[in-house]
Write a structure and sequence with these properties.
The chain is α/β, with parallel strands linked by helices. The chain is built from eight helices and 13 strands. Helix content is about 20%, strand content about 20%. A nine-stranded mixed β-sheet has the order 1-13-11-5-7-9-10-4-12. One of its GO terms (molecular function) is arylformamidase activity.
Length: about 270
């Protein structure tokens, strides 16, 4: 197989996810990540031979850390994608349609758009709106094909170790403007990702909680959104195109799933 020959020749893999650990940034709308070891080595020797085991318990929201949004994540006027009634869809404590388990694994072409590089800055300013024009200029001569995944860097992940700064509740957070979301949707991509908590731009003021790209992509075009990605290594290595690999957990009826996306290039 050609793919096996490629692997044998050597590939380079970029891990695009953030570590999940206690104290990590989480949107106020989500249960924060918590993990604790509840059975330790030495608590019990079940065999009498000295062999032990340990187990941990993890509690987290489904949109914490690097994650992908399921199509049931957003609605408008009581409707989900395809006109499904949003109230009926989640009766019983989980969504009957469009849950995280329905997100098909992705092995496809990826395209990287580095907006700070375009602007000649380390990272975008708080509240900066990435427009259609920004995306077009960052794309240059590269072509986006139907079914591709497009990843957009703002540089904001540089603040990830400071949850208050990363969430930007008092400053705003850069992100994609509605015109950018519409431009992406017109390309008929499979998914769009970014290195911020909300993908959409978060500007201080009355529109702070507006998420037009979520509507444009998820609700009206069934295009998944991936958030809190670490795109810094791609930027350092000037990677523009790659094989993109992602699979969500089969969390039945969940509105999203933690993921560990990968970008793969020839070594």
């Amino acid at each position: 197989m050609d793919i096996l020959k490629s692997v044998q020749k050597g590939v380079r893999v970029f891990d695009l996810s953030v570590p999940m650990q206690n104290g990590m940034a989480a949107s106020p709308s989500n249960v924060p990540y918590n993990m604790g070891v509840f059975r330790r080595h030495g608590d019990r020797d079940r065999t009498g031979t000295g062999g032990t085991s340990a187990n941990a318990m993890i509690v987290t929201g489904d949109h914490v850390g690097t994650h992908i949004d399921a199509l049931c994540h957003v609605g408008y006027k009581g409707k989900l994608y395809g006109g499904v009634d949003s109230t009926e869809a989640c009766m019983g404590g989980r969504f009957k349609v469009y849950g995280a388990e329905t997100i098909k694994p992705m092995v496809t072409r990826g395209v990287f758009l580095d907006i700070p590089k375009l602007k000649g800055v380390e990272r975008l300013a708080p509240g900066y709106a990435v427009t259609k024009e920004d995306l077009e200029e960052a794309l240059g001569d590269t072509v986006i094909n139907k079914g591709d995944v497009v990843l957009i860097r703002t540089g904001w992940i540089q603040l990830y170790d400071d949850p208050q700064a990363f969430l930007g509740r008092s400053t705003g957070v850069p992100g994609v403007a509605q015109s950018g979301g519409e431009w992406l949707a017109a390309k008929e991509i499979r998914a769009a990702g970014a290195d911020t908590i909300a993908f959409d731009v978060e500007e201080l003021g009355p529109n702070y909680n507006q998420r037009p790209c979520h509507g444009v992509l998820l609700l009206f075009n069934a295009i998944h959104i991936i958030e809190v990605m670490d795109l810094e290594e791609l930027a350092r290595e000037n990677v523009k195109e790659f094989v993109f690999v992602l699979s969500s957990l089969k969390l039945v009826g969940a509105t999203g799933s933690p993921v560990r996306p990968l970008a793969i290039i020839d070594a």
